[in-house]
Specification:
CATH class of the largest domain in chain B: Alpha Beta
Number of helices of chain A: 2
Shape of chain B: elongated
Strand content of chain A: over 45%
Low-confidence stretches of chain A: 13-45
Largest sheet of chain B: 6 strands, mixed
Shape of chain A: flat
CATH architecture of the largest domain in chain A: Sandwich
CATH superfamily of the largest domain in chain B: Metallo-dependent phosphatases
Number of domains of chain B: 3
Number of strands of chain B: 14
CATH topology of the largest domain in chain A: Immunoglobulin-like
Oligomer: heterodimer
Number of helices of chain B: 20
Structural class of chain A: mainly beta
Distance between the termini of chain A: 65 Å
Chain lengths: ~375, ~550
């Protein structure tokens, strides 16, 4: 009986040692990093090894592709070594298929001399511009544990535009003078493309002017191929109402593959006095310690203005002083607003408006929203 | 623990040998208790290729590295993606996962210095959430970086699209860290603390010096008249010279963040070889796995892609053979253990959403007139369409479009005040008379007929008027050609979308016959109001089954 007991302990010990030792000796694989790697050459792999050989460069550059198209490229990977080669899919940023793989989770074993195909597919869909996608294949070739296959190129819509994101951002535009921006609408496959119409959602304040692209402009848009098209000058006329705006510009063309392109015109029309940030927003202010937030008041044309705090939501305290960049008594048109929530304020949500009175002839009153969350002690 | 294949024959051999010894002359009929091997394929069956399985947070990260003396976590060009990009599953990225990564590395005893290349937000004009939401998002993104103990962030032109004053106004309130660094942009007097030329971060007993440069051309392109008043922009190369020297004198390793074309990063790395790490802007969304080495291997040029899907991790080691190592980190489901990134979850799911609600971002969204509609037409809701198009309405009611709004009402992750979500889950948002709120425009919940066909009030009131009919007409060919669906079914939110396969699911051509009495009689305001209420009742019972949007 004692003999069986000792043998059982010995057997269990040997079993554990055999299971654990290789894992301790080799570098951890899947949990080592995010990007999975097979262990590099280990003690037990000293002998005949698989050798991963790829038939050509693992980077393939596509010709310019249209939208809604599919491109693919195939490589052949062979085992030119003397023992079995295991292939596994590694990190990928594209649709990647490996011939003979039954599903994404399996491994493929190539005997010495065998090969398989690696195919990378790229669907352009509605993408626009340059792309680069890759997929890694992990191998147990000790000298090439990972092979990264890459496809890259550029997607060209039928009608191309600048700016590419189709947004004209006017940021903080003064509403007492005109503001302009330019868009380009062009094609590389239709030399006689025409603009059929240009309309916008606020014709009373937005005007457009179409003119053909000049040669230097064409060159600037594309140095690799000839392009044909127009530039549209968009002007926001003075008097556009103060505040945020988001308008639309529709350009219709006679291109058979893309008849309409829409642009967004967005931004903020500012008046004579603006506050930045526009909303005085404090979150997670400790009721015990209070909180402070600073903002800047900007007066157009750097005029000197007297401010008086007419209203402040309780328990907020507001002070305004000229920004410390005034030179030799000259006004910089900038004022520092400091909003304080005093220590010991009552916890809760605060929503209100700070009202300032001014001596500016066109802005007698300035209203600034305030939001705050005052947290009590737990 | 799975048994490694190479160990199995040895185990069996030992067991058999021992049993033979143990049995001696004993009972050979007794069978041993055997170990059941688990095949390698079984052991990995639940792990999708290329994507490590979610773990419980206890496994060691970067286990094949020794613990570095100091480490740099690099992020950048988040482009407004606070959460994994898109509203479909299986996407990469998100600040919650990044927080989990930082916490786990710190718990392993790493001296981690997180830095960001800037580009926290998307162009406010291009963002579906609009300018006001982007401002709040920018604040939240900065707060998230502070929560993750970020030390430095580069000044980026894409962030300044929010307006130089707005951005400086937010930087004013950042506190000690993160510092906004730029070697070649100097703020005007009174704003000095908003942008500093360099910052030296403490990493254990070592120091990492950080600065950035920005391509002056990228600032010239901004349509912001206040920029020139507030910021002085210098040529990058000249401005960097004294900063690089100061960093070299005062820190153990130097990091340069470059906001500009890849060529600028390369030229800066060549001109100032003292930098150990140069972080470059990305041309492509997905970065390469390896960093480029220049200056005879001394300097690493790193890019981390766009949309916050990847981070770069750099370890510094007291090892003359390999003093610096780089690893691209994929922010996938591995970092999704329950409870991971809780401070960030709270920031995004609770604080951010509360601030959007308080600021009434959706209600106050700037609205415009509908360009393709007949002047004077307004949104009336699908209820009004049902009167003459009952079969089309019935088909729509079976689609996810009809219940799109309900997908926003998850109690743990409510998004009904988030303009980015509202823009695709309601009808007529952005347009005059379109979606305002659940209280004011409940009849416009979900993605309804008028999102594609335009506002229908005039057609509903005078259905046979050819001018009004023409304004509503839309063929599938035109919808496809003009990419009407792509506004919502974009590559982030609907990566599998293809018009050819999705259109048949909602195809509704000639389903109605218009031969019933009343089909050609126009609706008055009272009748439209009654039909709008009926629509709400129709939407009600089917709320539960269609909540999960996953295209």
């Amino acid at each position: 009986m004692l003999r069986w007991f000792l043998i059982a302990i010995l057997a269990a010990g040997i079993t554990m040692a055999i299971i654990i030792a290789p894992q301790m000796l080799s570098k951890p694989a899947n949990k080592a990093t995010d990007d999975l790697k097979f262990p590099t050459k280990t003690a037990e792999q000293n002998g005949p090894s698989p050798v991963a050989t790829v038939d050509h460069e693992p980077l393939h550059a596509f010709e310019p592709m249209p939208q809604n198209a599919e491109g693919k490229h195939v490589w052949k990977i062979s085992n030119t070594g003397k023992s079995d080669m295991e292939l596994t899919k590694g990190p990928s940023t594209c649709s990647c298929t490996i011939a003979n793989f039954k599903n994404d989770e399996s491994k493929l074993v190539l005997k010495p001399g065998e090969s398989t195909e690696i195919e990378l597919k790229w669907e352009t869909r509605q993408n626009n511009g340059e792309f680069k996608k890759s997929a890694s294949v992990l191998t147990n070739d000790p000298l090439k544990p990972s092979v990264e296959f890459v496809v890259q190129g550029i997607v060209r819509p039928a009608v191309m535009v600048q700016p590419q994101d189709r947004v004209l951002n006017f940021s903080n535009a003064s509403n007492d003078k005109p503001n302009e921006a330019i868009v380009a609408v062009y094609s590389s496959d239709k030399a006689d493309m025409k603009i059929v119409s240009v309309t916008n959602s606020k014709p009373a304040f937005i005007e457009t002017k179409i003119s053909p692209l000049a040669t230097p402009e064409k060159t600037q848009l594309s140095q690799k191929e000839n392009v044909y098209g127009y530039k549209i000058t968009v002007q926001i006329k003075p008097g556009m109402p103060v505040g945020l705006f988001s308008e639309e510009l529709s350009v219709k063309t006679d291109h058979p593959r893309q008849e309409e392109i829409k642009f967004i015109l967005t931004g903020k029309m500012t008046g004579p006095i603006s506050c930045f940030p526009e909303v005085l927003r404090l979150s997670q202010v400790s009721a015990e310690k209070g909180g402070v937030l600073q903002a800047t008041l900007i007066v157009r044309d750097k005029k000197a203005v007297k401010f008086e705090v007419a209203e402040e939501p309780k328990p907020v305290k507001v002070t305004i002083v000229p920004a410390d960049d005034a030179k030799g008594g000259e006004s910089s048109g900038r004022y520092r607003l400091t909003l304080t929530i005093p220590p010991g304020s009552k916890p809760g949500a605060l929503e209100g408006i700070v009202v300032l009175k001014t001596d500016h002839p066109l802005a007698k009153e300035v209203k600034i929203p305030v939001t705050a969350v005052i947290l009590g002690t737990k | 623990m799975p048994l490694r294949p190479q160990g199995l024959p040895a185990v069996i051999f030992c067991w058999v040998s021992l049993i033979m010894i143990g049995c001696g002359q004993g009972d050979s009929k007794k069978s041993p208790s055997t170990v059941q091997p688990v095949s390698d394929s079984e052991s990995t069956a639940k792990v999708k290729a290329g994507e490590p399985a979610p773990d419980d947070g206890s496994s060691k990260l970067m286990a094949d590295w020794p613990t570095p003396v100091a480490a740099l976590l690099i992020s950048g060009e988040q482009n407004g993606y606070l959460e994994p990009c898109g509203c479909t599953s299986g996407q990469l990225g998100g600040l919650k996962r990044r927080h989990e990564l930082c916490e786990r590395l710190k718990s392993q005893g790493w001296n981690l210095v997180p830095v960001d290349l800037g580009g926290l937000i998307k162009d406010p004009g291009a963002s579906l959430g609009g300018i006001e939401q982007t401002k709040i998002k920018f604040t939240v993104a900065l707060r998230a970086l502070k929560t993750m103990n970020y030390q430095a962030v580069a000044l980026a032109a894409s962030d300044l699209k929010l307006g130089t004053l707005e951005v400086l106004g937010q930087y004013l309130n950042l506190g000690d860290t993160p510092k906004i660094v730029s070697a070649n942009v100097k703020p005007t007097a009174g704003f000095e603390q908003t942008i500093v030329p360099l910052f030296i971060a403490q990493a254990g007993s070592k120091k990492i010096g950080i600065t950035s440069v920005i391509d002056p051309g990228s600032l010239d392109k901004l349509n912001d008249p206040t920029l020139k008043d507030l910021l002085t922009v210098l040529p990058a190369k000249e401005a960097l010279a004294p900063i690089a020297a100061e960093l070299e004198a005062k820190s153990d390793w130097q990091v340069l963040l470059v906001q500009g074309p890849a060529e600028l990063a390369k030229s800066m790395a060549a001109a100032y070889p003292s930098f150990d790490v140069v972080v470059a802007s990305s041309v492509y969304e997905d970065p390469t796995a390896e960093a480029d080495k220049v200056n005879d291997g001394k300097t690493l040029i790193v890019n981390v892609g766009k949309k916050g899907k990847y981070n770069g991790l750099i370890g510094f080691f007291p090892d003359s053979d390999q003093p610096i190592r780089y690893q691209r980190i994929t922010l996938g489901s591995r970092y999704d253990r329950p409870g991971a990134g809780e401070p960030i979850r709270k920031l995004i799911d609770e604080d951010f959403q509360s601030e959007l609600k308080a600021a009434k971002v959706v209600e106050n969204f700037p609205r415009r007139s509908h360009l393709s509609a007949t002047p004077g037409a307004s949104f009336v809701g699908a209820g009004a369409c049902k009167n003459c198009h009952p079969a089309t309405y019935a088909k729509w009611m079976t689609s996810k479009h009809s219940h799109a709004y309900d997908a926003l009402l998850n109690p743990k992750r409510n998004r009904e005040f988030d303009a980015e979500c509202i823009s695709c889950h309601t009808t007529g948002f952005e347009y005059e008379s379109g979606w305002v709120s659940a209280e004011k425009t409940p009849y416009l919940k979900g993605n309804q007929c008028e999102n594609c066909h335009g506002p229908a009030s005039l057609h509903a009131g005078d259905p046979d008027n050819p001018k009004f009919k023409k304004a509503m007409a839309l063929t599938s060919e035109l919808a496809d050609k003009n990419m009407l669906c792509i506004r919502c079914h974009d590559s982030d939110n609907s990566p599998k979308f293809s018009f050819a396969t999705f259109w048949p699911q909602i195809m509704h051509k000639k389903l109605d016959t218009y031969d019933k009495p009343g089909s050609h009689k126009g609706l008055n305001a009272d009748e439209i109001a009654r039909l709008q209420k009926a629509l709400l009742a129709d939407q009600q019972p089917k709320d539960t089954g269609l909540k999960k949007a996953n295209y």
